[in-house]
Design a protein that fits this description.
- By secondary structure, this protein is mainly alpha-helical.
- The strands form 2 sheets. The chain has a two-stranded antiparallel ribbon with strand order 1-2.
- Helix 7 runs antiparallel to helix 10.
- The longest helix has 28 residues.
- The protein binds FE2/S2 (inorganic) cluster.
- The site of FE2/S2 (inorganic) cluster has 9 residues, from helix 4, helix 5 and helix 8.
Length: 278
């Protein structure tokens, strides 16, 4: 046995203390409700977003969902060029960042390890024995989970552009093809604004960001810079306590935002808006 194989063997998942056998537990509550509901919501949203952002355009066209100054968050920032191949969705060029960010998120890992891999299905609930035979996050593919902190840095790029998209959405800076350039408060603008607020909350409540700001310091009060970091760390910790809520709410709103812009784009609905100014 090579040294590497011996190390990986030693790193294999321990047996744990839950009773053995899939679903075996002493719990008397309805523990299965959460993973089932989460699996349904996550699967619907993730499947829809992947299809809409990457496959919809090449199959049905048009390549980008945008209408009336509203751009679907799946395509922001819009990366496209004149002779772009029709099989390539602009969404693919940016979605790898948020997909990677969410897939490696500490909270989602806990959630999908439970509802997809039953690993374990819930706290103090027995799991299939086959799961004891992998090397946790010490080997491919799950070692890639360690990329999360780098995906966090990248995630702020599309987030910045989503905030810029609020300008044409409210006609603060009207889109070039806007028919009515008065300031507006439309359903689409509100949907995109709520979405970007929740996505910002999700990113700022990230465990990695909290560690980046407040971690690896022995003394919080020793210097002015450290006192500032401590204050920031406290604020991020406040957000972090509700990271699960930010994760689910932002996943749902980004889905709804894309659905709304696609419905507008297809002419199925018209945007209701209050307009102000001359
Ligand atoms: Fe969830 Fe970083 S831990 S986004």
């Amino acid at each position: 046995m090579t040294v590497q194989a011996a190390v990986l063997r030693a790193l294999r998942k321990p047996a744990g203390t839950a009773r053995q056998g899939f679903g075996t537990t002493s719990r008397r509550d309805n523990w299965i409700v959460y993973p089932v509901v989460q699996a349904v919501v996550f699967t619907i949203c993730a499947s829809y977003l992947t299809f809409s952002g990457i496959f919809w355009g090449p199959i049905f066209g048009p390549q980008v969902a945008h209408a009336d100054g509203y751009l679907s968050p799946l395509f922001s920032p819009l990366i496209a060029w004149k002779d772009m191949p029709t099989w390539l969705s602009p969404g693919l060029l940016i979605l790898w960042i948020p997909i990677g960010f969410r897939a490696t998120c500490y909270y989602y890992r806990k959630a999908y390890y439970r509802f997809y891999f039953a690993d374990p299905p819930g706290c103090a609930v027995g799991e299939p024995r086959v799961h004891r035979r992998f090397a946790l996050e010490n080997a491919l593919p799950f070692i890639l989970q360690n990329l999360h902190r780098y995906l966090l840095y990248l995630a702020f790029i599309p987030l910045f552009f989503l905030w810029l998209d609020i300008l044409p959405a409210f006609n603060i800076v009207p889109a070039a093809d806007a028919v009515d350039q008065r300031f507006r408060v439309g359903v689409g603008g509100v949907v995109l604004l709520v979405n970007v607020i929740l996505l910002t909350g999700y990113s700022l409540s990230c465990h990695s960001l909290r560690h980046l700001v407040g971690g690896r310091i022995d003394c919080f009060s020793c210097t002015q810079a450290r006192r500032v970091r401590y204050t920031l760390w406290q604020r991020l910790s406040d957000l972090n306590r509700n990271h699960m809520w930010w994760a689910w709410s932002s996943l749902i709103t980004v889905t709804l935002a894309d659905v709304y812009v696609r419905l507008l784009d297809a002419g199925v609905v018209t945007d209701q808006a209050l307009r102000f100014g001359q």
